[in-house]
Amino acid sequence: xxxxxxxxxxxxxxxxxxxxxxxxxxxxxxxxxxxYWQGMPGPYRLLLDRGWIAEVNTAPLSATAVTQGWMQISAxxxxxxxxxxxxxxxxxxxxxxxxxxxxxxxxxLVRAAFWSVLLIGFVDVLISFLRIEKLLEFWVGExxxxxxxxxxFRGSYVHYxxxxxxxxxxxxxxxxSFSWLxxxxxxxxxxxxxxxxxxxxxxxxxGDLVRFWYAALFLFASAYTLLSDGHxxxxxxxxxxxxxxxAWANILGSVLLGMPLCWVILMQGMGGKGNSINSPLxxxxxxQSGYGMYVKYLMAGFLVLFAxxxxxxFCSYVLFNIARLIEADELLPNPDSGSPTxxxxxxxxxxxxx
Length: 354
Known about the structure:
- The chain is 74% helix and 2% strand.
- The chain is built from 13 helices and two strands.
- It has helices at residues 2-36, 42-50, 63-89, 95-132, 136-140, 142-148, 151-172, 178-197, 204-227, 243-270, 278-283, 296-326, 343-351; strands spanning 331-333, 340-342.
- Strand 1 and strand 2 (340-342) form a beta hairpin.
- Helix 2 (42-50) packs across helix 3 (63-89).
């Protein structure tokens, strides 16, 4: 009985910490948007204003801003409390199922990112090509042509709606392969070679498309590869570990190395208005070539999605390995047949939707 109670406590604590970690990263991104895009004060600025954090040369907040700050803090704490209660309400639910839930969230984000870069790549290249060849005005008119030359307009009214469409597609189409994106990178590079040496034609947007898709392939596929357990291990010790030692290595590696790296990327890149991620996103930064693709700011956003998906997947990975340590024989009941199913098999099924 004592062993069983200990297992339940570990299960509840692990689930709660993993869910709080995932909630915290989403709250961090939401708070970043509210502070730097919507001009709200945020918890940090409010605490500075109240004198709870020592810093000089900070202008006092208005009464409205103080109210907004307290509303933000209250909402964040309330959401964290709700998530903690939800995680503690089901102490007998398998951690393997929780790991699968987080994997499914990662899979959805990766799918949405895949379709986003696919749609934006094709549409933005088409706009750039038509602008260069003086054909765009015929289709959209002079006024819209002028607006499409502005990064803010193209980002807000072309790219962002395409991201919304991609999110809907990701809900409906649950099987994609990043090998398709790799093939598209090869084809885009082939088109550059063909047009340059056969037709003596080359434009800036052609190289931009290769870089755009290649960056997406590298950063998005990292979480996808971790999700499908496809990363190559370079250590010579892991292969000889027992099941228990492998689980501990995965847990400690995720907690001590993987998760901190993701938070460093987010906090260093989004810690201020002028930081390396926030600045391009806020200013809709584009390359210097006027007729290239207007997607440079999105490539800075790739780092956000990379850190987000990797952090969620590390949480899933930790829960999966804790389950292997404390759940008997790594088995889960199969509701259809009544027979036990190996936990690794269930995890493999959960990753097949990417």
